[in-house]
Each structure stands twice: as C-alpha cells, then as structure tokens.
Amino acid sequence: MTPAHDSSAAAGRAAELRALLARAQHEYYVLDRPSLSDAEYDKLFRELQAIERDHPELRDADSPTARVGADVGDSHLAKHTHLVPMASLDNAFDEAELQEWDQRLRRLVGDAVDKDGYCCELKIDGAAVSLTYVNGELKIGATRGNGRVGEDVTANLRTIADVPRRLEGKDWPETIEIRGEVYMEFDGFERMNRERAAAGAPVFANPRNSAAGALRQKDPRETAKKPLRFLGYAFAVPGNPSLPFTTQWELLESLASWGIPTPPHRRHCPTLDAVHAWAREIENTIRPELPFAIDGGVVKVNRLTLQTELGVVGGRIPRWAVARKFAPDIAETKLLDIEVQV
Ligand code: NAD
C-alpha cells in the first residue's frame, strides 16, 4: 500500500488528483494552453497511478489515467473515427524502468524480441495525427482526439508542405492510415510568438501547444500561415493486406520511400544495452542541437508480428513500445515563464 495513504486518505487524494489532472488535460488538449509544466503533470499522474495500483477499489474507467487525450465532442470541427484506435504510451523515466518494461514483455514473448531487436526513435513533442491515403491519395487527416474519435483537419493538413497529397512509389496498401506528429521548429515558433506579441495576441507556451492550436484552426488559410512540419512513424490498415515491411525499421524505410518525412537519428538496436547507449547519446548530445522539441525517445519492439502479439493494455498503452522520457528541457520551463509574464 502507498505508505502515506490509508484507504480514506487515498480516496481523498485520488479525487483531488483526478480533478487537477482533468483540468490540466482540458487546458493541454482542448485549449492548447497548459498551466502546468509537463514534468509537474507527469509527477501528479504517477502519484495517481500509484494510488490506483495500491487501492484497486478506487479504480475508475473515467479516471484521467484511463484516458487517451481528450474528447472532441465540443469541437467546432467535424469528427473522424480512426480505423484502429490511436494509443498513448507508457513512460520509463530512467534505465531501470526501461529494463522493467523489457522484462515485462519478455515474460510474454520470451527472447523472440532478440531476433530483430528494438527500433529507437525520437519522441517528437507535437500533436499526433492520422493521414488516410486511398490509392495513394490523401483523403482524410485527423487529430488523435480521445484515441477513437478525432477531429477532421484534412484541409488544414493539406497546407503543410511535409504532408504529401499523393504518395510516391507504388507498393503502398490500397488504404493506409499513416500516423505521425505535426510539430513546429523552434525558429518558426519564436518568430510566430514575436509577431503575436507585437499584434497584442496571447503568445503560446511552447511549440507543441502552438502546433496543436494551429492544426485545429477553423480557417485553413490561418493554418497555412503557421510554420507546421510533419514526421510519420506508424500505420494502420484495414483487413490483412500484404505489406512491404515486417519490422518497424522497414516501415520507416517504406514511409520514406513514399515521400513521408520520418524521424531523424533513429537507430536499430539489437540489445537493451544498445538502447540505453542510444538514449544517453540523444539526451546528452543530440537533443541540445535539434531544431525542434522532443520529450524523450520511443523504444519499440522491432518485429511487427511481435507487436501484434503483445497488444495494447486497456485500449490505451501498447505493451510493445515505451517512451523513454528525459529530464525536462530547460527551454520549455523558460517559455512557460515568459507566458506567465504576458
Ligand atoms: P505521450 O505524449 O506521453 O506519448 C504518446 C504520444 O507520443 C503519441 O500519441 C504520439 O503523438 C507521440 N509520439 C511522438 N513521437 C513518437 C514516435 N516516434 N513514436 C510513437 N509515438 C510518438 O502521451 P500523451 O497521452 O499524448 O500525452 C501525455 C503527455 O502529455 C504527458 O506525459 C505530459 O508530458 C503531456 N501532458 C501535459 C499536460 C500539462 O498540463 N502540461 C497535460 C496533459 C498531457
């Protein structure tokens, strides 16, 4: 049991944390204006998870820990139901937690993971979207929303130069949802905020919230003025078509061959030690030089059939992937300070 909590104290604290987190989720996902830093949010989230783990009688399907993103019921945009739900990710805050994740999945699939190892990617701090291509043509683009239903932002996504209207090559499946992240580079973000401040408009807290806000504009001409970028890293297909890739690594190569930009600095790691080394290099050497924000790395079991076998917990958390979160970026804390002064 969580030492600090007997049952009634735990119920009280859980209610308090749920209210705080529900408000933070609304500010972050719906208003695009968070009042907590991500590190503060993650700390409260983990505290609630620990209480729910130690007090199963307090578990609740409506808890912020059981949700993906936020409902889009009140949105001014049309709704889109995803082919396959868009999930969230569990976090590993250090090497020991990453090792625990690896041990959990090995209890289910044994050493089969050693055959193709892990695919390690940057965790781009943007807004998740899904692009549906039919016969190679972009038909629908949608936000993640609550994971099952997102907002239709097709017209807005068409304004982003990184999002191809038509896929290159020809070995793509007839229908495919390509998933990835819309984000803003620091340069574009700072320029945009300076212009907003000069015009007396409120500035955005960070590039992530700014990108999410720009993506959900009513008028695509407004989105077109924003310096949005896109990187793709995942897919969903209806039925069981034959695919030109069998691993996450090959998927990224296929996406690139179809004209979809993919995360730089990725690495195919045969062992967990190699994954740790990659994460250290990204955190210490690569992140300070990147032109965009990341909030960690994502470690994925490389073989796609193993991903399917491992599945998704509670419709929310894939067992086959984990976010290796880094210490909060000082730049983000600074930007929140600026926001407070405006
Ligand atoms: P998440 O951001 O921790 O992880 C899932 C998301 O990672 C995916 O949906 C995808 O959009 C993204 N991602 C980026 N690169 C990826 C890659 N290469 N492969 C796979 N996915 C990739 O989960 P979440 O549910 O989107 O958000 C939770 C996080 O959001 C929290 O940990 C917190 O940091 C932040 N948050 C902050 C506040 C706040 O008030 N500051 C509120 C809500 C959420």
From TrEMBL:
Enzyme class, spelled out: ligase
Protein family: Belongs to the NAD-dependent DNA ligase family. LigA subfamily.
Reaction(s) this enzyme catalyzes, per UniProt: NAD(+) + (deoxyribonucleotide)n-3'-hydroxyl + 5'-phospho-(deoxyribonucleotide)m = (deoxyribonucleotide)n+m + AMP + beta-nicotinamide D-nucleotide
Active site: K123
Span within the parent record: 1 to 342 of 684
Record-given protein name: DNA ligase
Lineage of the organism: Bacteria, Pseudomonadati, Gemmatimonadota, Gemmatimonadia, Gemmatimonadales
Enzyme nomenclature, EC number: 6.5.1.2
Source taxon at top rank: Bacteria
Co-factor requirement: Mg(2+); Mn(2+)
Originating species: Pseudogemmatithrix spongiicola
Primary role: DNA ligase that catalyzes the formation of phosphodiester linkages between 5'-phosphoryl and 3'-hydroxyl groups in double-stranded DNA using NAD as a coenzyme and as the energy source for the reaction. It is essential for DNA replication and repair of damaged DNA.
GO MF term list: DNA ligase (NAD+) activity; metal ion binding
Keyword Isomerase: no
One GO cellular component, as annotated: cytosol
